[in-house]
Structure formats: C-alpha cells, structure tokens
User: Fold this.
Amino acid sequence: MIDIYSQLPILLIAIPLFAAPVCVLLGGRWLTYLLSVVVCGTTFAISIGLMQQVIKYGPIHYEIGNWKPPYGIEYVVDGLSGFVMMFVSALAAIVLLYGKPSIDAEIPRSKHYLFYASYLLCMTGLLGMCITGDLFNVFVFLEISSLSSYALISLGRTRRAPLAALQYLILGTIGATFFLIGIGLLYQMTGTLNMSDIANRLDTETGPRTLLVAFGFMTVGLFVKMAVFPLHSWLPNAYTYAPSVVTAFVAATATKVSVYAFIRLVFGIFKPEFAFEQMPLGTLLLTLSLVGIFIASTAAIFQDDVKRLLAYSSIAQIGYMLLGIGMATTDSLTAGIVHMFNHALIKGGLFMVVGCFVLRLGSSRLSDWRGAAKTMPLTSLAWAIGGLGLIGVPMTAGFVSKWLLLTSAFESNHQLVAGMMLVSSLLAVVYVWRVVETLYFSEQPSAAAKEASEAPVWMLVPMYAVIFAVLVFGVWTQFSAGLAAEAAQSLLPLDLVPTAPTVSPGGTP
Amino acid sequence: MSTEQFLGLYNYWIVIFLMMTGFYIVIARNNLVKTIIGLNIFQISVILLYVSMGKISGGTAPIVPPSMVSHGHADVPHVAHADNHADARPHDLHSDETKDLAHDHQDDHDNEHDSHAAQESRGTAEDHKETDSPDALVNHPVSDSDHHAADSAHDEQLTYSNPLPSVLMLTAIVVGIATTALALALIVRIREDYGTIEEDEILEMDRAA
Amino acid sequence: MIEWTGSNAIWIAMALPLLAVFWVFLFGNVPNLREAGSIVVSIVLFCVNVSLSKLVFRGGRPEFSFGEMLPGFELNFVVEPLGMVFALVASGLWVLTTIYAIGYMRGHHESNQTRFFACFAAAIFAAMAAAFAGNLFTLFIAYEIMTVSTYPLVTHHGDAKAKAGGRMYLGILLSTSIAFFMFAIVWTWQLAGTTDFREGGILSQAFEENRISSVLLAVLLGLFAYGIGKAALMPIHRWLPAAMVAPTPVSALLHAVAVVKVGVFSVLKVAVYIFGIDLLADTGASEWLCYVAGATILLGSLVAMTKDNLKARLAYSTVSQLAYITLGAALATPASVVGGGMHIAMHAVGKITLFFCAGAIYVGAHKTDISDMRGLGRAMPFTFGAFLLAAISIIGLPPGGGSWSKWFLAVGTVDRGMYFLTATLMVSSLLNIAYLVPIPVRAFLTPAGQEPMKINEAPLMCVVPLCITAVGSVLLFFFANEIYSVLEPIVGVQPDPS
Assistant:
C-alpha cells in the first residue's frame, strides 16, 4: 500500500502530464473537456494538500525514484513554491471551468482536444517550474510550458495569432537558451544541478568571474520570460491575438511563475548579498521597473483594444513585483510575492471579463464595447470591480499589495520610489476608467452592444468567483500576506539595506 | 592573456562565434525560416558549450571497465557502489564520484585540479583552473584522493569525460527539435494566411489591414 | 442577545447602513418596501448614534477593532467627540434626506432608483466608518470607499454631462488620495510608528528627535491638506461643482454633508490628533495653510456670485465654507478648532436646507437658474422661507447657528494675530449676504414673470424635511453652548462628568 500523501508532489506533475496525451488519444470535445476539468481540479486539490502539509510540517522534499539528491532529481515544496502552485492550479481550473463557451466560439472544433492537451501541458510546465529543486529541470519545464503556450497562442482566430506566437517563440527561445547557458556555467563551477546544493557550493564572495556571467545570462533570460521592460515586446501581441481563454490563463500565471523562478534564482541559488551588493541588481530592478511602469501604463492608456490595454498593464504590474524584489528587504519581498498572487487574481479576472465581452460582442476593440453596460450589466460590473482592484482601491486585493509595497519602500528609505509608485498607479485609474466610461456612458451604443445579451451563467459564476476573491483577499489578508511573509522570511531572513531607525511601536496611548 | 591561453580556450571562442552568428541571423533576417535557422545555430552553440565542458582530452566514455569491476568488489567500497549502478543512468554515475569528492575535497579544489592538470600534462593549468576545475573533480576518480591512489594505480586509463552534460544536451536537443518543429508549423500557417514568409511584407500587410 | 455597550454600538452603527444596502437590493422591485426599509434603518441608526453620543459626551471613548488588517495596521474604531458630532449630523440628516429623496426621485420618475438607494446607504456606511475611525489607515479606507460608492450617484443620469462630471469627481478625489494622502499616511507611520489618533498628536516626538524639520512638517501637512481632496481646498476644488450633475438629494446629503464633511473632518482630525495643535502652533507649519484657506474662502465666494445656476452657486458657496473649517484646523488654536468642529454641524444643517430648497424648486417649478426665480416665493412660501432661514445661518447672522462657529473662528484669527484673516472672514460674510439673500428676497418681493402661475409647492415629502432642517439651523443657535462644551475635550479640556 503506497501512502498516497507522500506521493503528492509527483502526482501533481504526473497527472496533468499523462492526461495531456490521453486527451489527444480520446479526441472529441466533451470528453476531453471533462477530463481536463477533472485533472485541473485534482491538481488544485493536490496543491492544497501539499500546502497544508507544508504549513503543518515544513518544507517537503520528494526524491524522484528514490535517488538521493543531489544526484537524483528532487522536488521541493516550501512556503513559496506551494503558494505559487496553489494559485496557478486554482486559476487554471477556474479559467477552464469558465471557458467552455468561449472555447467553443473561438477555437475550431476539430482542434479542441489538442487545445486541452496543450492547456494541460502548459499547466504542467508551470507547476513543474515551481516544484522542482533541480535547475536543469526548471529549464525543461520552462520549455514545456513555453512550447505549449506558443501552440495555445497560435490558436487565435485571426491570422496574426500564428505570427504573434512565432515572435513569442523566437524571443522565448532566446530567453530560455540564455537561462540554459547560465545553468551550464553554474554546473561548470559546482558540478551539481540541485539548487540547494549549488547554493551551498557556490562561493559567491570570492568566486570566479564566471559567476557574474552566469548570473547575467540567467537574469536576462528570465527577464524575457517575465516580460520586463524593455524585453517585453512579445507580450502585447501574444496576449492580444491569443484566444481569450488562453490569454486569461497565460496572463494570470505564466509571467508570475517566471517571477517565482527569478526570486528562487536571486535568493535561493545566488545569495542576495551577491545579487544586491556585488551586482547592482537592486538599482537595475528599481530603474527598469519604474521606467517600465510609467512607459507601459502610458502605452496602456492609448490602446484601443482592451486585450492589448491589459497586456501593457501586465507589463507595468510586473514592474511592481520587481520593485518588491529590488528593494531587497523582507517586507518588500513579501509585498512582491503578495502582488504576484493578487495580480494573478485581478488580471485573470479581468481577462475573463474580456472573454465574456468577446463572446457576446465578437470583438475586444473598445469601440465595439460602447454602451455594453445596458445589455451586459453583470459583466460590466465585474470589470468595474476588477478595475478597482487593478488601481488598488482599499478593500480590494490590489490595495493590499500596494500598501505593503509602499510601507516597505518607506522602511528601506526609498521615499522617491514610493512617490513614483503612487503617481504611476494613477495611470491605472486612467486606463481602467476609460473602459468603464465606454461601457457605461456611451451615448450611442455600438450595434453589437445593442443586441448583446448577458454572458452565460456558466461563464459568469467562475468569473465572479475570481472577482469576489479579489475583494475577499482585499479584506482577509492573513492568508495571502501571511504566507508570503513566511516565504519571504525564509528566503531573506535579514534585510540587506539598513532600515530606517525603528520607532517603538505604540508608545503611550 | 597570452596566445597560448587564448588558444587553449578555443572551444569557448567557437561557442561565442556560433552564438553571435545565430543571434545576428535572428535579428537581421526577414525571412522567417532563416530566422529559425539562426535560432537553431544559437541553440547549437549552447549544446557545444555544454559538451565541451564535459570533455576531457583523452577521456573515454564513462563505462566502468571490466578490470575495475573484478578488483573493485573486494576492497574499494566506492567502486563497488559504482558497479551496482553500472547500468543506471549516467546522472547517477556522475553522482557517486561527486559524492566522495564533495565530502573529501570540499575545500581543496585547487590541489585537486592541479593534480588533474598535471596528469593531463597540458600547459593550460590556469585556464582550467577557471573553467574546468569542477569537472576535474567529477571526472577523476583516479586522482581524487590519497586513499584511492593505491587502488587507481593499476588503472590509469580510467580518465573519462563527464557524461552528464551530454545527457543534458540530449534533452536540450529534444527541446530544440520541438521548438523548430513548432516554429516551422507556425511558419506554414503564416504562409497559408499571408502568402509570404518575409517578415517585413507580413507587417506591411498587417499595417495596411 | 447583544449587550448594549459602546463598542457594540460602533459596529451596529456601521452594520446598519450595510443592512440597508442589502435590503434595498433584496427588495429592489418593491419600491415601497425598499424605501420603508431605508427609512427604518436610518431612524434606527440615528437612535443608535444618539445613545452612543450620551456615552461619548460624558467622556467615554468606546473602541472597536476588527484586528490587524495588514502588518502594523489595525482596522480600529474609536469614538471621540468630533467624530460623534459628525456621525450624529450625518445620520440625522440621512433620515430627512431619505424622506426627501423618495419624494424627489418619485416626483421626477428617475431610473435606477435601486442602485441609487443602495449606493446612498453605502456612502453613509463609509461616513460612519470615517467618523469612528481610530487611526489614519481606517480613515483612509473609509474615505476611499466613500469616493467609490458615491461615483455611481454622481453619474446617476448616465449621459455625457454625468460622464464628464464623474470623471472630474473620481479623477481628482482618487488621484489626490492615492498620490498624496496615502503617501502622507505612510510617511506619518514611518515617523511615529503608529497612525493612531491620539490627543496631543503623535508627531511631536519625531519633531523633538529632529527626525523631521518644521519645513518638512509643513510639507507633510500639505500632503494631507491636498491629499484629502474632499476638503475642496483650491485649486483642487473643481470636483465639487462638477459633482453637481448628481440628483439633488445626492448633492444635498453627500456634497453638503457626508462627502465634503468627511474631507474637512479628516483635516481637523489630522491637525488635532496627528500633528497636535501645539506642534502646529509652535512650528508654524500650518501658517501657509491659513492663507490658502483664506484665499479659498474669498475666491469661493467671489465665484459663487457669478453663478446663475442655483446648484452651482451653492457648490461654490460650499467650497468657501469648507475652507472656514480648514482654516480652523490651520489656525490651530483651541477656539478655532472647536469653531471648525461646530461649523461642520452648522454648515451641514444650513447647506442641506439650501440644497433641499434647490431641489424642491426644481421639482415644483422646474427651474434651475436664479434669474428665473423671481416671484416664485408666493407660490412656494415654505421653500423660500426655509431658504432665507438657512441663508442667514450660512452667512453667520443671528439667529442662525453659523454665527457662533464663525465667531469662534474669528476669535482664532485674533488669537494668532492674523488680523488680515479676520478681515477676510468679515468680507466673506458680506459676500455671502450678496449671493444668498437676494434669492429669497427677489422670490418674495418681485412680481412673477409673464408665464401663468401654475406653480405649487413640491410634494410634501420634499417640503417637510426642508422645513425641519431650516428650523434646525435656527435651533442650533440656541444650543451652541452644548455643542461647544461637547467639542471642548478635543483640545484637551476635560468634560464635566455630570
């Protein structure tokens, strides 16, 4: 009798991985859909189970095939990876649950089973990147998720979709290859691929210059996958021309997992002292992310296609996560991790709203959305709420991460960064509200909006589950901020930058 | 950097040359198929990088020779260990050696690798110090420590290349093939939709639309 | 059974408007039930606040906490006199406004009434939360909820004008609060280690330890004064006139009482409980704010004179009157702060009457421009009578309640030796007379225009509330001493325990 609990880490990967070819073998539309939903649901359940075990007993180390690390491949679930896997699998399941009508409308029926297979593979890749403790494995899973997402993006309705996918493929492959070079150099220096083993063996203080090269290659490689300004050029087209369901899933998860990999790289493999004191990573991240936030947010304001608008907004939001990493204190890292989670929810929810509109209005162009609030009030309201979350209005998840980021910026004496961050978030007000006004206050509704009907309940319920979660995690912060704080604590126990003199909290009332 | 050192690193120069060539093709070519070829060259350079760093001049394939098996069983536990897993995947083979070394020689890499360099009797000790030293660690059961010396004396041919990079590259090649296949499939679709595979013409058509 | 204690009263007072929100949504299709629910809840809320006020005015400081929301930031509510007065005013006027709104909305056959009443109740919830907020963080959250929940009210008509007004409203309020207010809060937190409202302020220690200079204190005060956009300090006052596209009950309650008063109330609280009036007075950090407030008072009045649209005129009058309260905070003397606190109540009652009248004139006579209102007084005697009483209170003439608050503010300017500002207050009062009094006077004294007199009073549901508030603004004149003694503790005078 195998203890199923002890096998959860491998099941998390194995189930979707093997379900994907089964989808191809089964063919058809309904059966594959049901299988995929069940698999995604199971994966989500497993990730919850893993997270519970982590909370109770601490990090889980799973040795594949019983080969002892650092020789065998090891799966590690700790606070951070468990947290990321949980929201990735949750969003994968919810988006799939929501997406059936949208998939039917946007993807040729003959290709449905292939779509589900790619979807599952993509999720496998993303989860694998989180769970594995082996650096080369990260590359393999990165490519699994990337390749399947190229395929998913190319399924879009217009002829631009394959081109967008190809552009993403070229840049993505270069990024992944850079990452691979970095792995190679690290291996050359340490003779091992296990991440914690590398971390132990790497002499970051007096090590050879190869270390810098490896770090540089891996950072740039991941910057491409994260779509950090100025390496973001693949993202707007990919998000715009992909099918709505794909956009919702990829936008919510893919870049966040890359951010996760980056956090692991900086704090788990290279030491933060190396990254921030020997290398100018802090300055680099702060500069790039602030510039990126301003440019991408401004670009978002001028987009006429809502998918593209949200895509630029995603580039900007990645900047906030990197700000959290770049300030390199425990609190700012917490903020960055929380923002990963919150932004996954918010962007996932908003792209789901876009999916509903595309289904009913046939387009994601803003001019076709004029006056749609009259005929699609619930979907429009969901946009308004999700948009408030994106802006960061209190009682939404976006506020929590913004507040944490702000306080940590003050604590680490980055007042200027704090100010710029706040000003930049005003740009979000503009682009979110532009859509709200188009929906609610257009004198002449577009022809499509006049005849549209409310999105099917099938889509509305999962969509509102996500939108509702945006509100819930705006009030109930113990879960997200608490888990993130623990994860940050284990990655960066001591702040690098001397913090502001601590004032005795409280005083006399 | 002396000429000798420069030439001693020839594998890296080849890698860099290939990498830049591939990169240039990706950036400069408008023809999508050529872009993909460039991408392939770029990937190939990385494969070379890996394989060359696992290679030791004069090293053999990592197969445990029969002579060693017959001797090893009786007196050297670590060889016996290797024997048990002789048919296991290379990853493990590498690991057995590393393990011993990792424990014995965590802190005297330099010694280690000097001896290795000496054994190889090549003049590029310094280069190796910077680049190959961990491989030396991995690849040299012969030279690794004193208590193995007696054992390895009768078996000096056992210098073998590190197999792990090659194995990793098998995976990378598979990934590369998948990428290329997918890219070509996409290009076929683009060609069907646009009637051309020149990127500037496609963008022109998109702008016009 | 829930025991009737102060802290229970706090959450009940906040839960009641939320209950009203759900009730309104639940019975959205049954107007009578929907509105009956609103009225009942508003009355119960007022009673709860009255009973809570008995405790607070005797010196009690009931507390209620939802626990830590973010590390170091608690969602905490503490009731002190200033907040209590604000809560009483807002909840009391909510009762009347609800009644008035029913008459107005039905008389006008407005659409989307369910959304209207729901957002209305949500705004009251935010007002209660702001009134009881125990620290800046809580206040900020309540403040933002109010901004967002009132946006659908401002844009109620859903046309291009509403869109433009709403854009101005949300744009200014949200951006100032995010860019300045939030920054100021976190800065305060960094300096003081807390954001709690405490008597005597929390920043004095940081100042003594030289962690902030008096110049930076002035900057911080500026971030607060302009971050709290709802205080409508010039030049970020534009949202207030823009918000007048809303239906009149919204303008009445929200843009004369709840929204704008949350703004000036927050400014007062920041001045008194964050900086502390002693710190402000000693460092002179608020001196610049006195002049800005003084300028806003004068300019607001001057602009009001040029407006022919009644609601626009009232809006600019509000801008001017709000600056009185900001001035009270900036002067930072005991008399001026208490005067500012009193003016919250006095101005609220007076201004809501004026807005009620504007709405009643619109419903009864379909007129919005002052120049068209000649001779209407005879057809609508109650409305214009009430207008006159309220105008007297706003101007600050006896027997209007406003005379007392303006008196204490003037005392404050003299205390600080700013005679220039004393003069400003006098001039502004003259301007008030010039732009408010002619309206009822012309309505009563000049003969009507050509059109036949078929104009009657607005529905009873509209006229009764405005008469009550008009009488109230006079009654406040006689109860000024009570309000004064109730508010004294905020500047350190202990209340009489009897």
